Amino acid sequence: MLFLLIWLVVLSGSIYFFTRASGSLSLLKPNMNSIIFYYSFFISSYIGALLIAMGVDHYYMINRMVFDYNRYVGFFAISFVMLVFPLVMYLIGRLVGFDAKKEYNAYLEKNVELPFAGRKDFFLIFLGISLVSLAAIAYTMLKTTHIPILDLVLNRSGLSPGELRISAQRNFGGNVLIRNIFAIALTPILSLVAYVYAARTKDPKWQVLFAVLFCGAILISVYDLAKSPIFFYIIMFMLLMLYIGKLRFTWGRLLAWGSIGAVLLIGMYIVIQGVTNIDAYLSYNSGPIGRMIFAQIAPTFLHLDTFNEAMPFLEGRSLPSSLIGLFDVEQVRSARLVMERVFPEKVEQGTAGVLNTLFIAEAYANFGMLGVIAGTVYIATLVQALYIAFLRLPKNPVFLCLFIYFTVNIPRTLVGGFTDFLFNPIWVMITVLFVGIMVFIRLRIDLFAFLRQRRSRVGR
């Protein structure tokens, strides 16, 4: 009962500060901060944390814990994040004079600008980048020994779906940056930008380009049998339509979309993982429900059970390789070390990858509780700074689609690790690329205008 009381008090405080920091927690008006609250913290982390602390989880990962008191340590650490994370975001907003509710509502009502819509050079540059991303998809398929979606459909491999997915990730024979940046990350954003121009200009060339990019984005989202990418891509598309005024969220639509999503998710579990027992879908600690409330947060408890207990703290060895490589230190990921310790049999069979979880786990694995505190303050500051910046930037297709990309991917990264918030080459590359296009075209226009003006003066 004590844990439940603490949980309710912390949750109430978290809701208050998240509402003040985001402008709205309404499911009908989703935004970056509200998705963080619902997906990263409440559903993926805090419900499971309460059940684990109360000892009623009966979850297979938690059964591997050695030191039972880490149930309570984990609960209080996650409670700290639930309360302090939105508090820091709220304070950052107050510091810069950010009225979250007013500015978010104004952003929703603002018309989308279409810079360079009629310029041929802009379309050609965008087309060139699109061809690069499509080529990267083809490159990914050619360099993947077993393409899981094809092997599953054609039944041409003796490997299980889980083994096919691990094989696609681990036995990729090409350059990982080309796959991750130009194929997986870039293609969906390009399709979103192309959609805005296609929907607003009705130009056939933009419509054809969008159709091709859309097909490419769907393919790269499902090729390795991962269940979440395709759902997140659909969410990105729905957010885009909401922000440009093409779609209005209602409770009836949310219920219908949720039902369709649940059916698709169950279908993917049946086809990909072979789960046919109805009890697995109704149980709170297995199947889709167990994956939502336990799978993402249980590894946080396993991190607490591993580091400073069975293993020493990493002291920065899981930080980005671009940083620690300067000191000739080899990078290790805490999520992989925990997997090797807790599930060595799965690692040996080749069916296990990493145990990604809430960002504080990796921060703790490196620097202990100091890492949990500092990491929470740092990431909350970074997230709120991005949220405010995007709401105040011009609402054009490039900035809008970058906003949507981060709106969906930051919540995913929060339950994936800590070091990606220190340096994320994919985020940096994508931001520089799209902003670079805008700057290049603007400089080109200004240069031509300057030259024309100078020639006209010389003529007079």
UniProtKB/TrEMBL annotation:
Q: Which UniProt keywords apply?
A: Membrane, Transmembrane, Transmembrane helix
From which domain of life does this come?
A: Bacteria
This protein's name? Oligosaccharide repeat unit polymerase
Q: Which organism is it from?
A: Neobacillus piezotolerans
Transcription regulation as UniProt keyword: no
- Keyword tRNA processing assigned: no
Q: Which residues cross the membrane?
A: 6-28, 35-60, 72-92, 122-142, 177-199, 206-224, 230-247, 254-272, 367-390, 397-414, 426-445
